[in-house]
Design a protein that fits this description.
Layout: H1 2-7, E1 19-20, E2 24-31, E3 34-41, E4 47-48, E5 70-72
Parallel strand pairs: 3-5
Antiparallel strand pairs: 1-4, 2-3
Length: about 70
Amino acid sequence: MASCIKTHPNCAPLSSSDVPLPTRVLYLGLSQGKDRIRLCEFLSGHRGQYAALSHCWGGKQTLTLAEERSVKGT
């Protein structure tokens, strides 16, 4: 995200870290030296920086969330 903000003039105005976050976001980052993806759920009022992606992976599939993968924001 930092590279996009620095190198794409059209992205810089959209890079405010003071925007309302969606209720659920995927956290992509490092934890204990390993790449991690976590679903974070927030109450209203949380603000931050995020990117929105959209992609269709094929036919309709039922999604499930393992409880140990969920992170609740407070």
